[in-house]
């Protein structure tokens, strides 16, 4: 991303109106109001003068090659101006105009033209359909709308200008911001790489509707999130929302659970809405550390303290248990009838011994306690603190916070004057005030998660592709392609074996005698399954018989199965049957992979049988994954308990199961021609895991997409 | 609840400090500041004068029988003063003092003394451990703390004073309020009955830690919630929170899911936290109707509109589809390249045709559309509306809202000056402003739910107990009690049959020959189960054999089962076996009931097998239930899909299943000696439902509680 976008020394404002002032929405007014110190060149074919500056008739007339051109002409005029900029050597161009890929067919074509105009020229483009950039460090903004420029060490990358214009509200202020708009050229990834490495920025905020290259995003975000928190508001979550997103910025929103998995893997913290975004920003701008998850609550109301303890349970923090020393110190001032503990209700003690004195003692004592990692102070704002300075405890709270910069001291303040007291409390930047215990605890929990989870997680993508016999896999897939087949059934088990994933052996048979020979080779009991490229759900058509215990049974089963299947699926080509050893026991799980347009191969794991669908108890990750991610995938399903010794069942070998997921991830990552893959079921037992049935769908010869098989 | 509590003409303030002014927390200061117009009598043994009023040495010295006494002496002095009040004929007493059931053993005893002091006297008590009452209609409050008295037509009943003191923040103001504190005498139910019937009150707010009599609460709440919304913040949700609640007000928090079920049944709307409470109050104070669930979004940002559509999906509203007429009217002003639809992004049109003109057209056109039930306007507050009145669209919005008082016009406003613009918008009381699309949509969704669900639901509890042969049930239970048994196994099936719940027949057998005779009577195949009062999980000890197809098999099974069970459970008394017909097929579900200390018999329903526990896929209701509630119980589990024709399975007879739940609810409601009951499994098939196994635990002879069996 050329420097010209965020730190230009000169700007051309192309297509600015000749009118200025209120309600005209002229960029020049905002650039001047922001205090930009570089050179400004308004451009309009009519020429003349604007806000005391000469107006140039075209970019070519400007006496220097500007660092940045900002275009806001009607859409049909844009491509020619971009070409002119590129020819002149302007490296950074912002297209504010709407009506491109966000609009009709003509708009899509115009956006294509823009891309062609800069292709190979070294000129780069932000937009179209953007309000451009904000850099409050250097007094730059290209917005055409007046907004509150509240500086803060945060950066925002968005697909809608409101996230820059409303930054004082959404992110507690802003330092750098880019509205990538339709992201025709410069996209999320390039912007994230640029803003993410700016050492002044302490929190990165993303407003995302869609992503063109999800895998590259993950690489960059993984690096950036180790340095500073990356928060993301992903919209277009719902189906209706995704449709709306597509017409807003031409983004493909994709499946929400895939984004969720990707964010988890690369350390991006998802925020639910703009309120959460605001409070998470406040949190990360105020606090840098939190030693553990043990929260102390100091309250002026027992009832309020209970609400805070409830929230701890919801968000994974723990109510701290005070040390004996802390309890003794508090007991010395608490009334005799009152039990000392966490939450510490200081009201009765404060009434008899002076509120501020007890408050100071409680805050200092509790923050000194090594068994406490953070403190939530619950305090009222019933009346105007400006009218009665006695009610302002901000000095006391800030003094206590300053003694322990490593432990967050947060506040929940309530009452009519909540905002006034909040401003006083937060003025020194040492404490953060929240409007509910829920907000406070959720915010501290995300701080803990960041400091202890994301910040120290490995920054590199798992690169190991060991254990995959790529040559053998390639041969099996190539053989299917040669036959013109895009679906592999039994051979999928051979592919698995070539990846080190245990799979049941199978032997094909084309008549009863062959079936009996195969069965005898394996030893009884055996399973018989119909072999047909057209039949996916074999048991639905009578194509599976389990627990066959002898030769006669096998022979009868063969005749019966072929008869039944032919009757039910007369069009299917049937290649006889396959025989497998019968292995009862173990828990049936499903492993699979599907190709996402943005993120590529996505792994899915869940309980087998009808329950996966019924309870949607599945987990997702972008492939490849690490061993730890494989274990997470297993642990985050509810059916995990079933595998870990539920109600007296023998626990399954989870390491073996995780290894299967890990290897499946490697396989689909290195074999891009695998479009979709299912191991269904894989039996997870106490002595290991084994794939029983599998299916692979590959792209056909020509590389064209074939229609989905399911 | 005597009138003296909320509309006293005279108040005794017993135990007030002789000091007044800031930081003394003297009730008399607040009573006077509030503008109370009745007679005030401070009481303190020292006598003298306070704020110009003579101080009486005791309640007996006061020259009249006051309507209300407010006591704030040290705790040990309280019982004697309460006795004095009762003797004097004071009908309403508030005990502010802490340190009773909220504290140590001595405190519990003191609270008992308070109760005895008023018992049978006609004197009633609010508290102890309370800040008392608020009645802003009559300028009364008994708080000892200064707070903002913002009037609003809401009432609050709480167990923590902060909900009255912080009402300007939590509930957008207040009209009436009672802090029931420890609720030693006057409790939630009596207060709810009193405040709920006040016609001035439009929203009732509850802060609840626990409930002594849940069934009575439901009766009252069911009545009140048909007249006005009842919102409840239930704290002590988590286990740790429940422990904290018990030491705060001596409440037993009970199991959270039971409260959840009870609230659903009696129309109480649960709020997650104080922020949600605030916005739900704002919603109900602003809007009275919402014709349907179709939401239109008018936005100045496409990206923001997408977030609103996402929220619709989350909270069960629908994005409206505009009529052709609406689309045409909007298309006439929108730029040609822009598709017209919902959300309607009016920014491009506003830029070219004037923002306010387009805004007015859009609001009026869309609110006129019969396919739209509510409108969310998304609007910025980037700069100070006081500095630039052009940015204030509140007049336009309010004009549009006034034209359609039946359809909510809500706003999401963002930017640094959100609060300033919000105040202007809301001044006329016609529109509500929210800080995020999530808040706005969640609030409109709860309005819809109230108007269309709760408001019109039947107000009476289901009283029908038809179809239960109470005499027969009584005989079976009495027989067990006579034998000294508290657990019924096979006989539980007889109890079910007596309630009209189909149950598999069974025949006991005490030897192999008897088993064969019984099997022959039913016809093969049959099931054999061990009969022993000590064995609950029969299959775990080899006590169940299914699908026995002939006499030899039955005889062998009998010998084998008795041998195996005796080996595994040598202490168990074995009464032979029972034989039942074997009925394969159908889905196994569990129906049960358990007695809750506050709500009495609670029904539970869920999928059978290990999945109930694994996925916690169960629903609860307080018994008895209506037919509609029975169907809701089935529908709100995820396993519902399994019963309704999942993946080609035949759908189960849901009416028959609901009927079983309904009748089970009647049974446990009329037979209070049933402590716990399980039908596990009940087979739900396409042709009806039938109980296969059941167990009942009853109270023993003496009426004492026996330890739990599980």
Task: Offer a few descriptive terms.
homodimer, ligase (chains A, B), alpha/beta, seven-stranded mixed beta sheet, 5 domains, 710 residues, Rossmann fold, 21% strand
Using the coordinates above, name the CATH class of the largest domain in chain A. Alpha Beta
**Cα radius of gyration of chain A in angstroms:** 32 Å
Please summarize the sheet with the most strands of chain A: 7 strands, mixed
Low-confidence stretches of chain A: 702-710
Read across the widest sheet of chain A, the strand sequence of neighbours is 9-8-11-10-12-13-14
- Quaternary class: homodimer
Question: What share of residues are in beta strands of chain A?
Answer: 15-25%
Please name the CATH architecture of the largest domain in chain A.
3-Layer(aba) Sandwich
CATH domain fold name of the largest domain in chain A:
Rossmann fold
Secondary-structure-based class of chain A equals alpha/beta
Task: Measure the end-to-end span of chain A.
Answer: 43 Å
Helix content of chain A: 25-40%
Estimate the global geometry of chain A from the Cα principal axes. Answer: flat
Number of domains of chain A: 5
Q: Total strand count of chain A, please?
A: 31
The interface involving the most residues is between:
A-B, 103 and 103 residues
CATH superfamily of the largest domain in chain A: Succinyl-CoA synthetase domains
Rounded mean pLDDT of chain A is 92
Q: Counting H and I runs of at least 4 residues, what is the number of helices of chain A?
A: 25
Family (chains A, B): In the N-terminal section; belongs to the acetate CoA ligase alpha subunit family.
GO molecular function (chains A, B): acetate-CoA ligase (ADP-forming) activity; ATP binding
Protein name (chains A, B): CoA-binding protein
Organism (chains A, B): Desulfotomaculum copahuensis
């Amino acid at each position: 991303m050329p420097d010209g976008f965020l730190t230009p020394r000169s700007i051309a404002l192309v297509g600015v109106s000749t009118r200025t002032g209120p309600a005209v929405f002229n960029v020049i007014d905002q650039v001047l109001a922001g205090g930009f110190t570089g050179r400004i060149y308004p451009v309009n074919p009519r020429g003349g003068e604007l806000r005391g500056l000469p107006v140039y008739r075209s970019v070519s007339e400007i006496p220097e090659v500007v660092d940045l051109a900002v275009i806001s002409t009607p859409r049909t005029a844009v491509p020619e101006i971009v070409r002119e900029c590129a020819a002149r050597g302007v490296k950074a161009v912002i297209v504010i105009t709407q009506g491109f890929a966000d609009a009709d067919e003509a708009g899509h074509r115009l956006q294509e033209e823009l891309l062609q105009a800069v292709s190979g020229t070294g000129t780069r483009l932000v937009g179209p359909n953007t309000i451009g950039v904000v850099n409050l460090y250097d007094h730059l903004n290209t917005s055409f709308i007046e907004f509150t420029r509240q500086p803060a060490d945060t950066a925002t990358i968005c697909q809608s200008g409101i996230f820059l214009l409303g930054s004082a509200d959404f992110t507690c202020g802003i330092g750098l911001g880019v509205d990538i708009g339709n992201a025709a050229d410069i996209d999320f990834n390039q912007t994230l790489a640029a803003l993410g490495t700016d050492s002044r920025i302490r929190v990165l905020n993303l407003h995302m509707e869609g992503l063109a290259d999800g895998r590259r995003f993950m690489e960059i975000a993984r690096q950036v999130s180790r340095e500073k928190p990356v928060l993301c508001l992903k919209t277009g979550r719902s189906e209706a929302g995704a449709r709306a997103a597509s017409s807003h910025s031409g983004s493909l929103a994709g499946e929400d659970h895939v984004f969720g998995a990707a964010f988890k893997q690369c350390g991006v913290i998802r925020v639910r809405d703009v309120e959460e975004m605001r409070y998470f920003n406040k949190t990360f701008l105020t606090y840098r550390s939190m030693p553990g998850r043990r929260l102390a609550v100091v309250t002026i109301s027992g009832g309020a303290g209970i609400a805070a303890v409830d929230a701890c349970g919801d968000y994974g923090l723990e109510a701290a248990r005070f040390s004996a020393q802390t309890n003794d110190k508090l007991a010395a001032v608490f009334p005799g009838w009152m039990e000392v503990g966490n939450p510490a209700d200081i009201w009765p003690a404060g009434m008899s011994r002076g509120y501020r004195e007890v408050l100071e003692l409680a805050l200092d004592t509790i923050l000194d306690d090594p068994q406490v990692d953070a403190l939530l102070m619950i305090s009222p704002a019933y009346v105007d603190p400006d009218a009665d300075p006695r009610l302002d405890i901000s000095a006391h709270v800030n003094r206590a916070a300053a003694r322990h910069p490593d432990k967050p001291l947060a506040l929940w303040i309530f009452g009519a004057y909540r905002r006034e007291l909040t401003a006083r409390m937060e003025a020194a930047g040492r404490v953060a005030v929240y409007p509910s215990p829920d907000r406070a605890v959720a915010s501290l929990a995300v701080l803990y998660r960041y400091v202890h989870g994301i910040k120290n997680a490995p920054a590199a993508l798992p690169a190991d592709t060991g254990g995959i016999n790529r040559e053998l896999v390639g041969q099996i897939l190539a053989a299917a392609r040669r036959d013109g087949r895009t679906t592999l059934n039994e051979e999928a088990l051979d592919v698995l074996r070539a990846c080190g994933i245990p799979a049941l052996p199978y032997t094909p048979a084309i008549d009863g005698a062959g079936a009996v020979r195969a069965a005898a080779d394996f030893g009884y009991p055996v399973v018989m399954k119909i072999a047909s490229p057209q039949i996916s759900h074999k048991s639905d058509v009578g194509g599976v018989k389990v627990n066959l215990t002898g030769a006669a049974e096998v022979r009868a089963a063969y005749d019966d199965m072929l008869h039944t299947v032919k009757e039910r699926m007369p069009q299917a080509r049937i290649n006889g049957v396959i025989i497998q050893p019968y292995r009862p026991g173990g828990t049936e799980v499903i492993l699979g992979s599907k190709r996402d347009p943005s993120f590529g191969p996505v792994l899915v794991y869940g309980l087998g049988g009808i329950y996966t669908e019924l309870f949607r108890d599945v987990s997702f990750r972008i492939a490849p994954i690490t061993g730890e991610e494989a274990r997470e995938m297993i642990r985050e399903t509810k059916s995990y308990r079933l595998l870990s010794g539920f109600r007296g069942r023998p626990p399954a070998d989870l390491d073996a199961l995780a290894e299967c997921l890990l290897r499946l991830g490697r396989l689909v990552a290195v074999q891009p021609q695998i479009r979709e893959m299912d191991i269904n079921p894989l039996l997870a037992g106490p002595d290991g895991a084994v794939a029983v049935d599998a299916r692979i769908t590959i792209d056909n010869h020509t590389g064209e997409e074939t229609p989905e098989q399911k």
